[in-house]
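Would you mind writing out the residues of a protein together with its fold in token form for me to study?
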Amino acid sequence: MVDVVGGKALVTCGWEDIPHLDAKTKTELMAATPPHLRDARAHGKPSLGAGAIYPVALEDILCDPFAIPAYMPRAYALDVGWKRTACIWGAMDRSIDCLYLYTEHYRGQAEPSIHATAIKARGVWIPGCIDPAARGRSQDDGKQLIWDYRQLGLDIVTANNAVEAGIYDVWERLSTGRLKIFKTLQNAQAEYRLYRRNEKGAIVKEFDHLMDCMRYLCRMFNQIAKVQPAAGYSSGVSATSGDSRAGY
């Protein structure tokens, strides 16, 4: 029980807190409960219920960080806004067609040069894609912003912004175990838990920057991804990552 305000309290409880339920009953309950509701019913953790866009338990798609092998192609997706600019990087294990999201950039109220520096630090050779609408701006503004980022040294193209098709691409990978997120990506995890549709079926457009990036990346990865250049490559920024587990 957690004290919320004077005279009120918040109590969380799930079937794991009920002493008379045996292990067999809990297993049956778990099997009969949709993945996106299991934490809520077993442990009392808040859940979005039927509104969740990706009803796959977060713990099923998280993985421990590992050093990205040089042979795995990489790419990133960028979602731009003054209040929040987000970027997520992915690497593909071609042998099992699994996309690993391994590092993120998440910052608000900063100039493009600040974001570009952070993006290049992960590997200036890594190509990316950006939302053509540039977070609510007109297409013309979006094109200008893409040009600005290219002038700052990013290898970047316009993303495919087909929303429902992109969501289907992500869902297909999630449901078949071919999309994994490093446990170190705290902002991506937070957004994943809240990514939902409203009662009319429309996507709730708030706190979804990295979810948009994930969608762009799943749609664009095979078109833009590159393998890390061999030793000796030079373009002003080292092609070798400083922290292979985080990607920079």
